[in-house]
Every structure is written in C-alpha cells, then in structure tokens.
Design a protein that fits this description.
Pyocin activator protein PrtN; globular
Length: 100
C-alpha cells in the first residue's frame, strides 16, 4: 500500500469513527457547549474570537431563530481526524518533544 493510500484509509477510518461517536452523542449538528468543546475551546467567547479572526477551520453558520454558531458534525469530525493525523505529538509535562 502506498503512503498516500495508507494516509487516506487512516483518515477515512478515523473520520468515520469520530463522526459516528459525535453523531451518536450530539446528532448531525453541533452547537453550544458541544461545539465549543469539540473545537478545543474552553469558552464560547474563545470560539467567537477565533471565528472573528478567521482561525476556525470548519464552516460555522447561524440558524434562523437560534442563537450562536453551529457546524455540521461531519465537518468537525473531518477536521479532528485531519488534525490528529497531521499534528505534532503532545509532550508530557516537563518533557521535550523528540524530533527526528
């Protein structure tokens, strides 16, 4: 299997797993606290600031007669899977990250 095919299959598997877990818990649409925490923010104000700065990597939108931002669960799951597969490993507190 080529590296790109492996990456693609890894992405698809992780995306599907994350999407199914998020949809089982929250449904096809994320909003409110579920959206804030899924996007890695501590507060809705933090997410709002990131959105104003153009630093939110998924499409956020408003719904008629509803307050706040919303995102499709599938979009958030895809972003999380991509971030997991391409991100740098987290170090344990006090230990440097080893690079090759």
């Amino acid at each position: 299997m080529t590296p790109s095919a492996l990456d693609s299959s890894s992405f698809e598997a992780l995306h599907m797993e994350l999407r199914e877990a998020l949809e089982a818990k929250h449904g096809p649409l994320l909003g409110g606290r579920a959206l804030v925490t899924s996007m890695g923010h501590n507060t809705s104000a933090g997410l709002r600031q990131a959105q104003k700065r153009g630093q939110v990597p998924v499409a956020l939108f408003n719904l008629p007669n509803r307050r706040g931002y919303f995102a499709l669960t599938s979009d958030v799951a895809a972003w999380l899977a991509r971030a997991r597969l391409t991100g740098a490993p987290a170090s344990k507190k006090g230990q440097p990250i080893e690079t090759s």
